[in-house]
Amino acid sequence: MLQLIRYGLVGVASNAAIYLVYLLLTYLGMEAKSAMTLVYLIGASIGFVGNRKWTFAHRGDSRSAALRYVLAHVFGYTLNFLILYTFVDRFGYAHQWVQAAAIVIVAGFLFVIFKYFVFNEKKWRVTAK
After folding, report:
1. What integer is the mean pLDDT of 39-62?
2. Quick check: 126 pLDDT over 60?
3. Which residues contact 110 (CB under 8 A, 6 or more apart)?
4. Whole-angstrom distance, CA of residue 129 vs CA of residue 56
5. Phi, psi (5° rounding) for residue 55?
6. Which contiguous run of DSSP H or E holds residue 58?
7. Residue-wise burial string across 7-25, b where 16 or more C-beta atoms lie within 10 A, e elsewhere
């Protein structure tokens, strides 16, 4: 439960800032999926250190965790992109609201992936016999 609270605190602060940048970029004329791509890369890059050290207190191999983190974010980004594509491009909803909802959905998805795949050294530890 403590991990979820910490993840929420890190997520609320960072996603609020990233979302404001997203709104600014789209206001200035950048297409929604392009703006999301840019802010997603920034947020994911910043998030590794905070989530590894503070949220999940991961002490395992940082390189293997970083590779799993990138893989998790490939899926998170794809999910975010598909949400925008489906609800904005296909159904015509306002991108501002769709992206706000997508942040919550992707954050929940990533918490589970981070906890059980990215920062779970017990499961991914290789032991020599």
Report:
1. 86
2. no
3. 72, 73, 76
4. 28
5. -65, -50
6. none
7. beebbeebbeebbeebbeb
